[in-house]
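User: Before I run my own analysis I want an independent prediction to cross-check against. Here's the chain; please return only the structure tokens and, at the end, one sentence I can use as a sanity check.
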Amino acid sequence: MTSQGHRGTAGAAVIGAGLGSVLLLHVLEPPLAITWSYAHLWRHPALPLAALGLAVVLPAAAHRLVRSRLWRRPCPPWSWPVALALLAVLAIVLPLAATRFPPFQPGLDQHYYLGAANDASRGIKRWYLGGWFAHVIARHFAGAPRGLLQVWMVSDTVLRMNALFGAVALVALAGAARTLAASRGEAVALTVLAWTTFGVIEISAGYLDIYPSALAILALYLWASLRALRGEMHAAWPFAVAALGPFWYEGLASLAPSLALLAWLVARRPGGAVQLAAASAVALVVSGLATLPGYGMPFAWGAFVRDVIAENATEFGYSPTTSLVPWPMLVSATHLREVLHTVLLVDPVGVLLLVVCGAAALRQRRCEPEILFLATLALPYLAYLLLMDAVQGAFADWDLFSFGTATTSLLGGALFVRWGRYGSPAFGALLGLAVATNAVHLLARFHALGIDVERHLAESPIHVPP
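Assistant: Structure tokens:
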């Protein structure tokens, strides 16, 4: 066996062991220090049987699918009618699901978000455009304030609005998956892996916070950027989305490194300098106009930055002066355990595939522009995951890191299918096992954060100043 064959076998073994470990955590539910990231598959007697069936059937089915002609069929880009039809279906299904089965949210952030929707003066500058937009929608559909009825109507309106953001995010992720795929089978695999990621689907089904809209903006940026890299779309579109992002939610400032790479790649093409100049002009205009709703004038960037810095300096977590984890805490067992369990909750499969298949791609020096672009999105997100203080405790503040799983799931899946193109006989079975692991994870955790709340809050206490 060649060294490449040995590495492929080793990679398959690591992926299989990692996926199997996640499945075992769900089935056995061991009483570890923090269980909120994998319990509770046993909340209904039918769920363990469903999990067993998925773990057996999906690997065998995927193994056969990967070897079929259907897997290798060409995958042309979506037409707009198809994308809009899918959006219409999801725009009906997700709001209905959101209002009938609203997710449990143990933190306090939804109250701040609804407060901003009800009263624009209560908005938070870290997501000032997102709060302003929620207020505009709430006033239009829920009407003027009128007591308890108004509170209910605002909540219901914002819940539906966020479910629509979830529909946009899922369509955009499916579109991005098609740009990363070499065949119809790969496109389906990447879409399923992204859509079944807990961090994606839990906040897409009507979540009362800023994160559904942040996910939608990130997914649109992914789709537009990947199409621009393939020459299928003008770079002005991803530039415009990226320029809007930080004003909508401060965490979207993490788009900056990938935008710089996109600009460099576009500029290298014939005629790229002209396209880059036009895209930069559009971004400048969008970011200038973004300050109009909150500051009454365009290009009020200085005031916006000062407000965000001042707001972030009044946190009540580990540090009283910043939203970041203090340096001594970064390497503490408590913090690292919380980060590990947050990853295990929001995207265990995507991060596992990213690490293992990313290491294989680095060894073989394979780096397509699309993969490099996704990496410049994933690395800032992973740094954000490590450095940001989950003030309310990871169990109550996991949603802070949810929207970035759009990137880790897509990048992990893209690296995985490329790894599979090199002929590993285990790829099909591992693909089925990966989808099964995501599905079992959802059986255990989707809309299940309300189970054993007191115990999980005790496991993941609120962060207080040392």
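Sanity check: The chain has one domain: 14-235+324-458.
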